[in-house]
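Supplementary Note 3. Input sequence used for the single-chain structure prediction.
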Amino acid sequence: MKDLTKGNIIRLLLAFSLPLLIGNIFQQLYNIVDTKVVGEILGEDALAAIGASAPVFNLIVGAMNGLGNGFGIVISKFYGAKDMKRMRQAVANSVCLMLGLTIVVTVVSLFLIRPMLRLLNTPDDILPRCTGYIQVILAFMIFTAAYNLCAAVLRALGDTIRPLIFLAVATVVNVGLDLLFVGAMHMDVQGAAYATVIAQAISAILCLIYIVKKFPILHLKKENFTVSFQELGK
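The predicted structure, written as discrete structure tokens, is reproduced below.
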């Protein structure tokens, strides 16, 4: 945990924000890596299928980043005020909101993905592959949400380095699994999607383990999950 209220403000802000910027690049690398590996191994049609899914993929990543950042603002406010009780309640409310919104968005998007891809003028010859790839990503969106929430909580307490490290590890895992699933196991574009999902799950698990071991003030209890519509509104 870092106290960002003491020391050189420029140096503190740079140290805090640079890992955030690099982390955003790493999250975009998931789709880029899938595109590169699939294009090299499976050819142009598979490459086009993943490329056509990029707008939907980026929308998911952007939405999860936005939610995480929003939750982090509320959590960091209470942490800065040294109000640990309300901070834990804000974390608990964030968990409930993120879980609920993720379930709703997952169900709705799985039903609407094909109309969305048609709206984006996805060619019929790559539509089945494109749909298969993005459906796997959508079905396991909970892992993307879990990582972004855990990372947001750590950042709210001043730690932007660990989320970046976990994301970098997951990106390397994604490359290896892409080569395994698409190249060695011939799982087509869905193999690349499963590689991305597993990598995201690993980043979320690493983040959660770190929080449990290093941040006892974030250990939530039953009373922290008291519903407060005022806090939920924030």
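The two ends are 24 Å apart (CA to CA). The chain has a mean pLDDT of 84.
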